[in-house]
Amino acid sequence: MQAYIAEFIGTAMLVLLGDGVCCNVSLNKSGMKGGNSVHILIGWGMAVMVPAFSFGAMSGAHFNPAVTIGAALRGGLAWELVPGYIIAQLLGGFVGAAILMVLYGDHIAATDDDATIRGCFCTGPSIRNMGLNFLSEFVATFVLVFTLASIPGEAGASGASWILVYGVIVACGASFGGLTGYAMNAARDSAPRLAYQLLAPNKGAKDPDWGYGWIPAVAPICGAIVASLLFNVLH
How far is residue 98's CA from residue 111's CA, in Å, rounded to a whole number? Predict the structure, then answer.
């Protein structure tokens, strides 16, 4: 139960800090509106690293169904714990997004474009090409999961591993973020997408875009599976 609580709170914090950056730079009347991609990259890297430092010893700081499934495939997590981890992560992602909608309620009200509001909580492609969009999320998550699996045990014991996690998140964003927003995580995308659908105001064209939204849920899991199987072969 401690691990599940850690995954719930950690994922909520990840979404609060990560999607909070998107709200901060995108919503009207925000004091930091207009912040650039570097602002977002640094913010998202920190959004993953900060809760990882807090909860890594309790649950492994997955905060991501793809990472959890990859860990189970490599023998680092018992399969019977996987459903509980994923449920906790999805609930945490939803709650984190819901809290942000309260915090930024005035700024959401001041923003007339539904797509801009949606983009604060979930990802979308810069060019809609389902095959390449899927491949982008697959490749980015492959890099994430393979890198996480390769971190030496001594780094994990010292806590240095969470700094390496910051590095890989920023690297993936810098290289792939312009394609699909590098979700790499259903708890960071699907759960806030549902929160947007249920809780955000309708400015006239509200669409959670589940026609695309399945990709940030499925492609990362596929990338994590291939990364973990390759890691097992090489190690």
Answer: 17
Q: Are the C-beta atoms of residues 24 and 35 closer than 8 Å to each other? A: yes
Helix/strand/coil (H/E/C) assignment for every residue in 66-120 = HHHHHHHHCCCCCHHHHHHHHHHHHHHHHHHHHHHHHHCHHHHHCCCCHHHHHHH
Contact 56, 163 (CB under 8 A): no
The closest of 15, 7, 8 to 104, measured between CA atoms, is 15
SS3 content of the chain, % helix, strand, coil (to 5): 75, 0, 25
Q: Based on C-alpha coordinates, what's the Rg of the chain?
A: 17
Q: At what angle do helices 186-199 and 65-73 cross, to 10 degrees?
A: 150
| Cβ contact 78:169 at 8 Å | no
CATH architecture of 2-234: Up-down Bundle (1.20)
CA–CA gap between residue 68 and residue 86 (Å, rounded) = 7
Q: Could you state, in order of their start, the residue ranges of all structural domains in the chain?
A: 2-234
Residue-wise pLDDT for 37-89, tens only, equals 899 999 999 999 999 988 888 888 899 999 999 999 999 999 999 999 999 99
